[in-house]
Amino acid sequence: MRKLTHGEIVARRKTHDDLALAPRNPIYAVCDNIRSIFNVGAIFRTSDGALVERLYLTGYTPFPPRKEIEKVALGATSTVPWEYRKTPAEAVSELKAKGVRIAVLELTDGSRSIWDMKKSEFPMCIVAGNEITGVSGEVISLADTAFEIPMMGMKQSLNVSVAYSIAVYEMLRALNGQD
Question: What value, to the nearest 5°, has the Cα angle with vertex 110 and ends 105 and 133?
Fold first, then answer.
């Protein structure tokens, strides 16, 4: 085994044209009032890596064009389909009307382990919340389910962009599994 060279990595990279034709995964995401520009950039980058169907930036979540987002997103703002909505509830309601199952990434009295996700639950939208207050109560009341990431130590949460990345890649694992 050896590490790939930069040239070998670039040769594997899809072009914008490839991405325009690529089938996307039935994964949607809503950013519920995320405050950090850098978290938004990281969420774009994960969304590109997982070929999410669409990313919704809502409320006071920063949105492109912003150089700080681009610094972390590394061009993913041009490869991820995204939209802005004034409120997270507006985005969630639109998705529910299209038959998309809404899952909040939050500690609730009904949360399930992220590891219990099933292929039959897709298409699905994951809602990631504010760094301090989490997913809003209004969005939780609209959700079909809640997922939490098992935490083994003292801390009960992760950085929102890290938690989002874990959730989205667990969604990919569930999509490739069997029910």
Answer: 45
Asked if residue 52 lies in contact with residue 27, where contact means CB atoms within 8 angstroms, the answer is yes
Beta bridge partners of 82: 55
Say what the pLDDT of residue 179 is. Answer: 67
Residue with tokens 């939208």: 125
70, with CB counted inside 10 A (0-12, 13-18, 19+), is middle
Phi, psi (rounded to 5 degrees) for 177: -95, -165
Cα 90 to Cα 103: distance, rounded to the nearest angstrom = 15
| Residue 55 CA to its chain's centroid (Å) | 7
128-149 in b/e form (b: 16+ CB < 10 A) is bbbeeebbbeebbebbebbbbb
How would you class 13 by CB atoms within 10 Å of its CB: exposed for 0-12, middle for 13-18, buried for 19 or more? exposed
pLDDT digits (tens, 9 = 90+) for 6-42: 999 999 999 989 988 899 999 999 999 999 999 999 9
